Amino acid sequence: MSIESLADELRSLIKQTEEQVAYFQELGVSGIALEAVPTIDSPQQPRSQSGESMEQIWADIGDCIRCPLHQGRTHVVHTEGNRKARLMFVGEAPGADEDMQARPFVGRAGQLLTKIIESIGFKHEEVLIGNINRCRPPGNRPPTPDEVAMCKPFLLREIAAVSPEVIVVMGNTAMKNLLDVKDGITKLRGIFQDHLGIKIMPTFHPAYLLRDPSKKRETWEDLKKVRDHLDSTAKREV
């Protein structure tokens, strides 16, 4: 790669960093700490991290009545897991089991997710797991754009607080809402997306895999890419 190409890449990364800061400021997140801006010799995209705690974010959510979903929920289901996680999984919204237990991914889809996590060498307690929306939609329907708009900023604040290296976004609805894209999951799955300084891997939702087990092989290929990426960054840090 020529010096000119490297310089262009560095300018692009600096612009992305500025966009990240502006984005988090719009969310009301203060105390953002950015890793060092990459040099020509180390053109890696910086990651952002806020000074917020999960408890502060959850306190702001409170007994939420911001959208109609609160009318039928039993519990608000917050993100759960390791607050220093390198890897995060994001789904669409809680189901019936999650709504009753106030925990994400505890039903049949959650049991499959645990197996997926373990298949790439992680333990359930080592990762972070959450959803775009925290209240169960009636009949497990997809959340509406207005419902997403009320809930998504809190997820983004959690992501900023933990700053995972990779997020696996599961399912069409979650992917479109997290990445703000129009393409469907079948087109983007398996392809890393760079979003706000984080590698995001779209793949199928575990609930979909329960309905169509033939897609498990494709999901495995997606998760191997996640595993290999995390292995490679871990080796560079040693």
Q: Secondary structure elements and their pairing?
A:
Layout lengths: L2 H24 L6 E2 L13 E2 L4 H8 L18 E2 L5 E5 L4 H6 L6 H12 L8 E4 L13 H18 L3 E5 L1 H8 L5 H4 L4 E3 L2 E6 L2 H6 L4 H22 L1
Parallel strand pairs: 4-5, 4-6, 6-8
Antiparallel strand pairs: 1-2, 3-5, 7-8
Helix pairs in contact: 2-5
Keywords, separated by commas or semicolons:
two-stranded antiparallel ribbon, Uracil-DNA Glycosylase, subunit E, six-stranded mixed β-sheet, 9 helices, 45% helix, alpha/beta, globular, 2 domains
Overall description:
With 238 residues, this protein is of the alpha/beta class. The protein has two domains: 1-48, no CATH class; 52-237, Uracil-DNA Glycosylase, subunit E, CATH 3.40.470.10. The protein is 45% helix and 12% strand. The chain has helices at residues 3-26, 54-61, 96-101, 108-119, 145-162, 172-179, 185-188, 206-211, 216-237, and strands spanning 33-34, 48-49, 80-81, 87-91, 128-131, 166-170, 193-195, 198-203. It has a six-stranded mixed beta sheet with strand order 3-5-4-6-8-7, sandwiched between helices. It has a two-stranded antiparallel sheet with strand order 1-2. A hairpin with a 2-residue loop joins strand 7 (193-195) and strand 8. Helix 2 (54-61) packs antiparallel against helix 5. The longest helix is centred in the N-terminal third of the chain and has 24 residues, at 3-26. The radius of gyration is 18 Å and the shape is globular. The two termini are 26 Å apart. The model is unreliable at 29-45 (pLDDT under 50).
